[in-house]
Write a structure and sequence with these properties.
2 domains, three-stranded mixed beta sheet, 35% helix, ten-stranded mixed beta sheet, Peroxisomal Thiolase, Chain A, domain 1, 391 residues
Length: 391
């Protein structure tokens, strides 16, 4: 049975800050941001957008009424959830009007969460071929103002419909995985900002990729010539390039050139959104699918997922015939075109806005947010979400 990605969409907030201007405001050479880490713009979430609303907006884009009746499992991968008990998936299930006879859960392992969700979804579809699973990857990367990690912040969500006989990408089964208990990046339960050992994390990312890539080659007998492209989890776009270059010494010139060229295409969206943790790998895949016009059916795409702490996995998919007809490229182009640049001062003001933690009531002006699904306020320690289409 073929199982894989039938639909894929993404959402990012309508506000962004220019990385050159952020660098200048921090008295840093802009090239360190635009070339050194490979970022051009950074999405900035207003107070009316959180991981729930971004995921719901991404899913709203791809689901039709038949999908809502067929989905009976919603799996939400995130490391910036809004509640320690109630899953973000339950909120999204209600906001989208998915039929009630469904499971809805949240999974966590740093940036690996959505990959774990996909693997879980594959097993579920194998047992229930008529079902569909909605996999959500949504995060807001926060390190703090004037910190070393500030330039690798971002916000966004990717939604994927996993099914039998998928129309975009059939996922293969020769995965290679690796787990090691390390402290390269973490966010204690009491903190809304992450902690990271940047140099160590970069080293581990590359080490994990080389190990799972080598294990995959030994397991399958496949090599660079069998791949049209390899997509990476991208905390910043230069990270994946470093990992890819670490293994290309043994590649034929033609293969190395193809993989590097396609890698650059796969970073287009990430470069202009920033780090979205669990969704970063899948935003890279989406960028490749929508920005490389000569991709052919039958091409094998490699995917490297990494979640600090740490879990890594290399897996693959084969493009289906006519996959281009099932993408939402026009909608994504319009979304990018409609975004509004804000100043560094405006970004800092938005960054410092916080929800009340004492149960007090607050209401937000959601008319200022063009998204369909927004956070309208908080009352009695409960977030109040609004789907403008159903009001």
């Amino acid at each position: 049975m073929k199982i894989g990605i039938d639909k894929i969409g993404f959402f990012t907030p309508h506000l962004y800050v220019d990385m050159e201007k952020l660098a200048e405001a921090r008295n840093i050479d802009p090239a360190k941001f635009t070339i050194g880490i490979g970022q051009s713009q950074m999405a900035v979430p207003p107070i009316t957008q959180d991981t729930v609303t971004m995921a719901a907006n991404a899913a709203l884009q791809i689901l039709d009424e038949d999908d809502k009746q067929s989905v009976d499992f919603v799996i939400f991968g995130t490391e910036t959830g809004v509640d320690h008990s109630k899953s973000a998936a339950v909120y999204v299930h209600g906001l989208l009007g998915i039929q009630p006879q469904a499971r809805s859960i949240e999974v966590k392992q740093a940036c690996f969460g959505a990959t774990a969700a996909i693997q879980m979804a594959k097993g579920y579809i194998a047992l229930h071929p008529e079902s569909k699973v909605l996999v959500l990857a949504s995060d807001i990367a926060r390190y703090g103002l004037n910190t070393a990690g500030e330039s690798t912040q971002g916000a966004g969500a990717v939604a994927m419909l996993i099914s039998a006989n998928p129309r975009i990408l059939v996922l293969e089964d020769d995965n290679s995985m690796l787990t090691d208990d390390i402290m390269d990046f973490w966010r204690p339960i009491y903190s809304d900002k992450a902690f990271v050992d940047g140099k160590y994390s970069n080293e581990q990312y590359i080490l994990f990729f080389t190990k799972v890539w080598q294990a995959y080659k030994e397991k399958t007998g496949l090599d660079f010539s069998d791949f049209e492209a390899i997509c990476f989890h991208l905390p910043y776009t230069k990270m994946g390039k470093k990992a890819l270059m670490a293994v290309l010494d043994d590649a034929a010139e033609e293969d190395a050139s193809r993989l590097m060229d396609n890698y650059q295409v796969s970073t287009t969206y990430n470069r202009n959104v920033g780090n979205i943790y669990t969704g970063s790998l899948y935003l890279s895949l989406l960028s490749l699918l929508e920005q490389k016009e000569d991709l052919e059916a039958g091409s094998r795409i490699g995917l490297f997922s990494y979640g600090s702490g740490a879990v890594g996995e290399f897996f693959t998919g084969i493009l289906e015939a006519g996959f281009q007809n099932h993408l939402f490229r026009d909608e994504h182009e319009k979304q990018f075109a409609a975004r509004k640049e804000i100043s560094v001062d405006e970004y800092e003001k938005i960054f410092e806005e916080q929800l009340p933690t004492d149960g007090s009531k607050v209401e937000f002006d959601i008319d200022e947010d063009p998204a369909v699904i927004c956070l309208a306020g908080v009352e009695g320690h409960s977030r109040k979400y609004v789907n403008k289409q159903t009001v």
